[in-house]
Amino acid sequence: MSGPTVRVVFLGGLGEIGRNCAVVEVGDRMVVLDVGLMFPEPDMPGVDLVLPELSYLVERADGLDGIILTHGHEDHTGGLAYLLQELGDRQVPVYGSELTLALARGRLEEAGVADRMIPVPVADGERRPVGPIECQFIPVTHSVPHGHAVAFFTPAGTILHSGDIKLDPTPVDGRLTDLDLLARLGDEGVDLFLCDSTNAEEPGWTASETTVGATMRKLFAEHGDRRVIAACFASHLHRVQQIAEAAIEHGRTVAFLGRSMGRNVDMAHALGLLDLPEDRVVDISEIDRFDPSEICVICTGSQGEPLSALALMAAREHKWVKVTPEDTVILSAHAIPGNEANVNRVINAFYRAGAEVVHRDSDAVHVSGHACRDELMRLHELVRPRAVVPVHGEWRHMVSHARLAVDAGVPEVEVCADGDAVVLGRDGIEVEREVAPAGYLFVDGIVGDVGHGVLRDRRVLAEEGVVVVFVTVDAHSGEIVAGPEIVTRGWVYAPEADELLGDAVEAVRASIASAAAEGATDFETLRRHARQALRDVIRERTRRRPVVIPVVIEV
């Protein structure tokens, strides 16, 4: 008699950077692996965040045994608050390292749902039962401390998820990726390997995080007479540690800036993950007491977020830090896809202010947290999986990774998409296509109030503008009592388009009069005639397609 079906359902993170979310199912029981978010792309106007489609999980909530977080980055944890909101008042066990859970808790507290998470801290190498699945947490190096790969021991075989991984030989905290444990899992047999694809196109090995520390010491030596402002991700605590240590070594005092930066620094201190002398750290409000050469500001905003500390500085609107030509700004991060324009805008603003800017294109101030090709090949040689499905990457990354896995001798390699499922069987894996909803869930203030129709209208508004026509008609005869009056934004500049707008007014007037003459005086018919007449003039005269809104008032 066969056992329960074991499968992995992908809800996000395949074919994109962000929204990482998968479900490991044994029969009708399930364990969720990560619930991440994605930052909006340029063609998503007004959208704050993008989440995985959560309905698959919400509809099966009775079978949810727990949520596992591989590490503390927002693209793996940022959607957790929204999922817990959708699940109602129930409490859910959430597994991860102590740091990962602490990082995730910050967003939960902001959303008022922290009490719905039952935190379950796990230790490196520990095995824990989560429902019918035994899970093992394998330490890996990444750009946030205390990340894990996760092995799922199921009735149909072992599934290994790499998490976000690199094989850093000299990590800042000395915590190495546990290659011995990965090799032992390979000896025991890994039936399905789900592996990070982000740098699958890049040859060689990713540089160690400690190389950034050497670059920082060099930069502080070269810019000794200038104030230094360094921006990085608030979760990149090893980067924060190295910047602060380099500053202190060169006689500087450090001030932290940004809500998430301050919160994470305090948390890291409490967990023993950040060690800085107390007398060399001051509040941001005190920096004017120091000569520029004696201070280093470490802040958030490396992605150019409009209201971040760094963006406000660039706009010369920050309360405590006014940028001057005596400043050197270091951007110790890379631009997440979709954020390039914001980052470039901030860099240009600093140059306009006379500051000097150092970024990854000019100095080695950032290294990736993801494995390159030679590291991935090493992982496949250690794990020796029976099947591989590349995860965490755009299509180009996953396809490149799939080819690498074939070259590594993996018997079965499949490239999947969000919404697909992989079923473990006696003879290998089987892919089921489009078994789960996998669309984008947009956040604009609240979750789910922006659908594709709203987003389409916003794109049109952004690209073509809007034209509104107001007209008052007699409710009985359909004759025009007042108007038409046309108001336009983003289509044409009204004071310079009198002739065009006059023709549009006459077209609307004639269309409504024609409809009334034929006895069509109902509200919807007159609105339709007004809209169509205005659209015809616009397209004929300008070849553009703004949003056209007719406002017909009956009296």
Task: Walk me through the topology.
Layout: E1 6-12, E2 21-26, E3 29-35, E4 49-52, H1 55-59, E5 64-68, H2 74-77, H3 80-86, E6 92-96, H4 98-111, E7 117-121, E8 127-130, E9 133-140, E10 147-154, E11 157-161, H5 179-188, E12 192-196, H6 210-222, E13 227-231, H7 237-249, E14 253-257, H8 259-270, E15 281-282, E16 295-299, H9 309-314, E17 327-331, H10 340-352, E18 356-358, H11 373-383, E19 387-391, H12 395-407, E20 412-413, E21 421-425, E22 428-432, E23 440-444, E24 446-450, H13 452-464, E25 466-473, E26 480-489, H14 498-517, H15 523-542, E27 547-554
Parallel strand pairs: 3-5, 5-6, 6-7, 11-12, 12-19, 13-16, 13-17, 14-15, 14-16, 17-18, 19-20, 25-27
Antiparallel strand pairs: 1-2, 1-21, 2-3, 4-23, 8-9, 9-10, 10-11, 21-22, 23-24, 25-26
Helix pairs in contact: 3-4, 4-8, 6-7, 14-15
What keywords describe this structure?
Rossmann fold, 8-stranded mixed β-sheet, 31% helix, 555 residues, Ubiquitin-like (UB roll), globular, Metallo-beta-lactamase, Chain A, alpha/beta, 3 domains, single chain
Task: Write up this protein.
It is a single chain. The chain is of the alpha/beta class and 555 residues long. It has 3 domains: 6-204 and 368-450, Metallo-beta-lactamase, Chain A; 210-358, Metallo-hydrolase/oxidoreductase (Rossmann fold, 3-Layer(aba) Sandwich); 465-554, Ubiquitin-like (UB roll), CATH 3.10.20. Helices cover 31% and strands 26% of the residues. The strands form 5 sheets. It has an 8-stranded mixed sheet. A 7-stranded mixed sheet has the order 8-9-10-11-12-19-20. Strand 25 and strand 26 form a beta hairpin. Residues 445-460 have low confidence and may be disordered.
